[in-house]
Amino acid sequence: AQSVAQPEDQVNVAEGNPLTVKCTYSVSGNPYLFWYVQYPNRGLQFLLKYITGDNLVKGSYGFEAEFNKSQTSFHLKKPSALVSDSALYFCAVRPDTGRRALTFGSGTRLQVQP
Amino acid sequence: EAQVTQNPRYLITVTGKKLTVTCSQNMNHEYMSWYRQDPGLGLRQIYYSMNVEVTDKGDVPEGYKVSRKEKRNFPLILESPSPNQTSLYFCASSYRHGAYEQYFGPGTRLTVT
């Protein structure tokens, strides 16, 4: 069975500081990995994905994520946080073959203080 | 504008009264899916559809039905809602299943009393 762990319910960071939101996964075979963001009273929005190739993936709004196969991790990062980055972040995984659906983590709330 | 729409956005109903939540996308996507979001559990897939007339169960299908008669529409049907189906529901679509990102609707908050 595939699974995603987001070990932190909430991450607090000061504006201008770097941020990291952690994600580890378990899947049979090679993974497709995604990050989504949810703002209050909105649906999820796609941020970035890892399919294959370069382990460092760049996405929307200055976010990036690093795929680490040996540690089965896909942590989301940003060099300089903005107050407007405050939201709920979800990591998701599915295998690169078959009909298995996306499995989402439980989410991490990012709070950026001014 | 490319989008996924859901209706209604908010619904309060009573146990056993059949209801339908509509979902429509204007991007000609093949893949559509329904999720429910519950605190601390993330999103869990209810049903999905690979294309017209092709639907299959997700991780939590009990108590739900779907249909895909047209490519753009994927309604979620609760034949006899129960209080444990109180949740936030999202419809999503993607070009195809697999490596493609999903586009999510704005959500439907359902309360069953």
Q: Mean of residue pLDDT of chain B? A: 95
Q: Give the terminus-to-terminus CA distance of chain A.
A: 41 Å
> Low-confidence segments of chain B, ≥5 residues, pLDDT <50?
none
Helical residue percent band of chain B: under 10%
What is the number of E strands of chain A?
12
Number of helices of chain B: 0
What is the makeup of the main sheet of chain B? 7 strands, mixed
Shape of chain B: globular
State the assembly state of the protein chains. Answer: heterodimer
- Helix percentage range of chain A: under 10%
Net shape of chain A: globular
Strand content of chain B: over 45%
**SSE series of chain B:** EEEEEEEEEEE
Which chain pair has the greatest contact?
A: A-B, 22 and 26 residues
Secondary-structure element sequence of chain A? EEEEEEEEEEEE
Number of separate strands of chain B: 11
Output the radius of gyration of chain B.
13 Å
Structural features, described:
With 114 residues, chain A is an all-beta fold. Chain A is built from no helices and 12 strands. In chain A, the strands form 3 sheets. In chain A, strands 2, 5, 6, 10, 11 and 12 form a 6-stranded mixed beta sheet that branches. Chain A has a 4-stranded antiparallel beta sheet with strand order 3-9-8-7, with no helix packed on it. Chain A has a two-stranded antiparallel ribbon with strand order 1-4. Chain A is globular. The mean pLDDT of chain A is 94. With 113 residues, chain B is an all-beta fold. In chain B, a hairpin with a 2-residue loop joins strand 5 and strand 6 (54-57). Chain B starts with a strand and ends with a strand. The model of chain B has no long low-confidence stretch (mean pLDDT 95). The chains are: A mainly beta (114), B mainly beta (113). Chain A binds chain B through residues 4, 32, 34, 36, 41-46, 49, 51, 90, 92, 96, 99, 101-102, 104-107, and chain B through 4, 33, 35, 40-45, 48, 50, 56, 58-59, 90, 92, 97-99, 101-107.
